[in-house]
Amino acid sequence: MIRISLALSLALFPALALADPPPAPPSPSGKQLVVVSFDGAHDNALWEKSLAMARRTGAHFTYFLSCTFLMTKADGKQTYRAPGQKQGRSNVGFAQSREEIAVRAGHIWQAHREGHDLGSHACGHFDGKGWSKADWEREFSAFRVALAEAWKKAGKPEAEPEGWADFAKNGIKGFRAPYLSLSDGLVPALEAFGFSYDASLVTKGPGWPSFAGGLPRFGLPLIPEGPSHRPVIGMDYNLVRHSMGVENKRDSARFEERTLAAFRNAFRKEYEGERIPLQLGFHFVEMNGGAYWRALDRFLSETCSKPEVACVSYAEALPIIEAARRKADRSAF
């Protein structure tokens, strides 16, 4: 049996605080936003699968990249040290070869060119609940350097696309904290590095972004799931409670149907109601025989083409939400 230990650590993380969704403003645009994101963004086969899913369904995704996948372990021992950790450590590992890095960098660039949003998931996937502003800034600096040097680390500096350097320096505007674990130093560090949004919160239901200073902060919602309609974070690593965190391919089809039903019901409530954005989170891991990725594919295939629905990245959602807020403010006078 393969135990999905990281899944359970996320699902049961004791420090995870649930926030009340911000009050929903009027929605003059009338659009129902569906925002899907992927954490880790490492497995090259799943890069290809997700990009194909996006093209087929018309969705745009946000990919939160862990930067140690742009370096080998040998590179990490020389160049990466997370706050409070030994040199060259990573909770999620490193690239296995320079060729793997080259393929991954190519997928990142392809996603960027096809209109997807690339965000930061920090580097070595460490719990930052005790990190200071300086600690977060150190991790953000490591991410920026790793992205800028990806083609060099791949051993193919001549293959670096024109515009990559600017993309590495200025193109990463969103962030999601590993384990969704926060500290008081996070928001000041995000603002200092020029991030446009944070997506590290969890809310008791679908909600509009809240604001810390001027920084929009999104939260993955609790959604009802299963026969008892028990609330679960709308993220694949939390749905593995289906199998108690143990890989179970035998019941994969049943898990898929439960997940799809939860997504459909959560969407229907907003689409037929206040049209609050629905956010769903995934990882580059196909758990329980791929049940959750299959459910996502089916959900997007039937949803993104509906009238007044936009399956967008966080970066695309921001101006739509801001335009709706401005329109709502004007209508109040």
Helix and strand element order: HEEHEHHEHHHEHEEEEHHEHEH
Summing up helix and strand content along with how strands pair, one would put the structural category as alpha/beta
Overall pLDDT metric: 92
| First-residue to last-residue Cα separation | 62 Å
Low-confidence spans: 1-15
Q: Count every beta strand, where a strand is a DSSP E run of 2 or more residues.
A: 11
Beta percentage is 15-25%
- Rg over alpha carbons: 19 Å
The tally of helices reads 12
Tell me about the largest β-sheet: 6 strands, mixed
In percent, how helical is the residue content? 25-40%
**Gross geometry:** globular
Main attributes of the structure:
333 residues, alpha/beta, six-stranded mixed β-sheet, five-stranded parallel β-sheet, 11 strands, 40% helix, 17% strand, globular, disordered N terminus
Write a concise synopsis of the structure shown.
With 333 residues, the protein is an alpha/beta fold. The longest helix has 20 residues, at 252-271.
Give a structural overview:
The structure is a single chain. By secondary structure, the protein is an alpha/beta fold. Helix content is 40%, strand content 17%. It contains twelve helices and eleven strands.
Write the layout of secondary structure elements.
Elements: H1 5-11, E1 18-19, E2 32-40, H2 44-57, E3 62-65, H3 73-79, H4 98-113, E4 117-120, H5 133-148, H6 150-153, H7 164-170, E5 174-175, H8 186-192, E6 197-203, E7 210-212, E8 215-225, E9 230-233, H9 236-239, H10 252-271, E10 278-283, H11 291-303, E11 309-312, H12 314-331
Parallel strand pairs: 1-6, 2-3, 2-10, 2-11, 3-4, 5-6, 6-8
Antiparallel strand pairs: 7-8, 8-9
Helix pairs in contact: 2-4, 5-7, 5-8, 10-11
